[in-house]
């Protein structure tokens, strides 16, 4: 069982034979490049950004983009229930004219309250783990930009969406043929073993921002195929609740809980451990059963000094991929 959906050529064929049903999506290659585009858009009209303010629970690619732009990076703290202290953010941003990133982790969308003290900053909502309802273009009017990462929740090879209720977005909407890595990725379903373990720390500062275009296969699927948000979300909630029940007596700390009728489409089941022994035990358990359990996030090497030796270093994500039914996989 994989964390992210497996590409399905049958869905591609159906998309090719279907009429386009979404015309207002602004699509580019990845969430990483969506974030880069947003920073470029902000800098185009304001070249004196003071800081990029990020949560200390953040993947390396976002930090790499921030550092690429040679803007100072500051961090605010995230607690073990995925909450932040708005007063801490206000204090870091008190000089104004900063870029502040607020993350909706694992599909749990927060109602971010933008206080008066934050009004003279640029607020970006990171929805990389969120699957929006089809044709739902609603955005918090106090946010400047949002971006998603569609490949994390839909069976596509690339794709991210950028949206803004405040700014006009002008992005080339051309597409390209999938590259070698994407074609290889499209055949993942043929592999007998699909384990994946993400190790913390990043050894390279190289980042490719040369091609913003989404691949043509993914563009066709996103624009033409009629996904059922309700069916996807329901199966993901069922899988999430399965892990709650299966793991409850194993000294594992759950970060969030849901009910079957909740209006949420979870990306994964997040939990954390108090010691390395149990943390590594469950990584090995996933390997032995061909279930992709990953250590998350892959921190950037420059972020480690802001990461205390607590739950932030021992988070695991268990898969809730809607293409699988955990009740049939694990007895």
Query: Which structural category fits the helices and strands?
Result: alpha/beta
Span between termini: 14 Å
H and E order:
HEHEHEHEEEEEHEHHEEHEEH
Could you describe the largest sheet, including whether it forms a barrel? 7 strands, mixed
CATH topology of the largest domain: Aspartate Aminotransferase, domain 2
Instruction: Give the strand content.
Output: 5-15%
What gyration radius follows from the Cα positions, in whole Å?
20 Å
Helix content: 25-40%
CATH class of the largest domain: Alpha Beta
Spatial shape = globular
Mean pLDDT: 90
Number of strands: 13
The CATH architecture of the largest domain can be given as 3-Layer(aba) Sandwich
Topology, element by element:
Blueprint: H1 9-16, E1 27-28, H2 31-45, E2 51-55, H3 60-68, E3 72-76, H4 86-92, E4 99-103, E5 122-127, E6 145-148, E7 160-163, E8 175-176, H5 180-185, E9 214-215, H6 216-224, H7 229-247, E10 253-254, E11 268-272, H8 276-288, E12 294-295, E13 315-319, H9 326-329
Parallel strand pairs: 2-3, 2-4, 4-5, 5-6, 8-9
Antiparallel strand pairs: 1-7, 6-7, 10-11, 11-13, 12-13
Helix pairs in contact: 1-6, 2-3
Structure notes:
- The chain has 331 residues and is an alpha/beta fold.
- It has 2 domains: 9-193 and 207-224, Type I PLP-dependent aspartate aminotransferase-like (Major domain) (Aspartate Aminotransferase, domain 2, 3-Layer(aba) Sandwich), CATH 3.40.640.10; 229-329, Aspartate Aminotransferase, domain 1.
- Helices cover 27% and strands 15% of the residues.
- The chain is built from 9 helices and 13 strands.
- The chain has helices at 9-16, 31-45, 60-68, 86-92, 180-185, 216-224, 229-247, 276-288, 326-329; strands at residues 27-28, 51-55, 72-76, 99-103, 122-127, 145-148, 160-163, 175-176, 214-215, 253-254, 268-272, 294-295, 315-319.
- Helix 5 links the parallel strand 8 and strand 9 (214-215).
- Helix 1 (9-16) crosses helix 6 (216-224) and helix 2 (31-45) packs parallel to helix 3.
- It is globular and about 55 Å long.
- The two termini are 14 Å apart.
């Amino acid at each position: 069982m994989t964390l992210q959906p497996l590409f399905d050529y049958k869905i591609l064929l159906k998309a090719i034979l279907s009429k386009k049903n979404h015309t207002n999506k602004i699509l580019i290659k990845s969430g990483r490049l969506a974030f880069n585009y947003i920073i470029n858009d902000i800098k185009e009209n304001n070249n004196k950004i003071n800081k990029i303010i990020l949560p200390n629970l953040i993947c390396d690619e976002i930090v790499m983009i921030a550092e690429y732009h040679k803007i100072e990076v500051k961090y605010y703290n995230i607690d073990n229930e995925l909450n932040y202290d708005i007063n801490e953010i206000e204090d870091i941003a008190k000089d104004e004219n900063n870029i502040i990133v607020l993350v909706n982790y694992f599909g749990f969308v927060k109602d971010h309250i933008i206080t008066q003290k934050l009004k003279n900053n640029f607020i970006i909502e990171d929805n990389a783990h969120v699957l929006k309802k089809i044709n739902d273009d609603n955005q918090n009017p106090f946010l400047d930009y949002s971006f998603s990462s569609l490949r994390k929740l839909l069976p596509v090879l690339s794709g991210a969406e950028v949206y803004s209720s405040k700014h006009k977005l002008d992005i080339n909407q051309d597409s390209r043929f999938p590259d070698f890595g994407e074609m290889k990725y499209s055949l993942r379903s043929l592999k007998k073993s699909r384990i994946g373990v993400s190790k913390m720390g990043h050894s390279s500062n190289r980042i490719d921002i040369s091609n913003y275009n989404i691949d043509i296969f993914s563009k066709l699927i996103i624009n033409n195929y009629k996904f059922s948000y309700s069916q996807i979300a329901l199966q993901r909630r069922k899988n999430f609740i399965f892990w709650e029940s299966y793991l409850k007596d194993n000294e594992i700390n759950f970060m969030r809980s849901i009910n079957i009728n909740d209006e949420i489409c979870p990306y994964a089941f997040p939990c954390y451990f108090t010691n390395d022994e149990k943390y590594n035990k469950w990584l090995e358990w996933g390997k032995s059963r061909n279930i992709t359990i990953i250590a998350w996030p892959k921190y950037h090497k420059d972020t480690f000094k802001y990461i205390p030796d607590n739950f932030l270093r021992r988070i695991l994500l268990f898969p809730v991929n809607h293409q699988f039914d955990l009740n049939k996989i694990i007895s």
